[in-house]
Amino acid sequence: MKIKVTVMPKPGVLDPQGRAIQQALGSLGFAGVQEVRAGKVLLLDLAETDPAAARATAEAMARQLLANTVIESFSVELV
Amino acid sequence: MKSAVVVFPGTNRERDMAIALERVCGHRPAMLWHRDTALPTGLDLVVLPGGFSYGDYLRCGAMAAQSPIMAAIREFAAGGGHVLGVCNGFQMLCEAGLLPGALLKNAALRFLAQDCSLSVERTDTVFTRGFAPGAVFRATMAHGDGNYFCDAETLARLEGERLVALRYVGENLNGSVNAIAGVLSPNLRVLGLMPHPENCVDPLVGGTDGLPMFAGLAEAFQPA
After folding, report:
1. Number of separate domains in chain A
2. What is the ipTM of this complex?
3. Could you give the dihedral angle defined by the CA atoms of residues B183, B189, B190 and B191, in that order, rounded to the nearest 10 degrees?
4. Over the stretch B2-60, which tens digit does the pLDDT of each residue have?
5. Most buried one in B18, B34, B109, B129, CB count within 10 A?
6. Domain span at residue A42?
7. CATH code assigned at A27
8. Among all residues of chain B, which has the CA nearest to that of A17?
């Protein structure tokens, strides 16, 4: 079962990468980019076949390792 | 003082740390590998040195925080053991939950490889007892992710309980909240800091501004 875990910097947490990308877009001539937030996407392929169990496992993985919940939020999606 | 330095794949300051520890107590620390599952008995201090463990994959210190040796270090800390984490070691301690907060990318995006000035916020800990009250000392910085961050509630607790050990003086180059450079655990036995006092222990190579940290530790753990 394939799972997509999206990890993003929490609102209010400084995201210097996002800011640099925003500035780079501006210098390329893309006007009006008000904010860029840079996160990560992790695609997991789990042997689990039960969607609810797979989701629960992925959430546990995200809490323990994939995201640092001090600074990041995450969402889990079956794909 | 019986100390040990933990080496992870990608660690690169372990020898600097070993030299600093040897300089103050006359013998080399034990060097441990990340796959080790137990610490030598009777240790006074475990040190997590700087570097780029596991290539900084996922987040700085995130993989190291899950490595086999870390279970033993958690147990050591829970039993009142002293742990020092420098640079990548500080990031590991935060990732492992042994210290609060996290280290974000430097606010100005640049990797910082330069000296900084640090104020010693309290001298009643084994890590800072070698400094005079109110001391300001110079240390080396070498990090891309040294921007200390924690939520407002944690920050209020750290300041209220005086758990900020060190602060940047002058320009706060990495953007850390309240210019925090080093954080203590509530029992004052775990210290994490971004700058490298171990690189300032030799009069011929960068001066001895960082030496009081190690001299103080050696004094605190002098065999009776």
Report:
1. 1
2. 0.88
3. 40
4. 999 999 999 999 999 999 999 999 999 999 999 999 999 999 999 999 999 999 999 99
5. B18
6. 2-78
7. 3.30.1280.10
8. B109
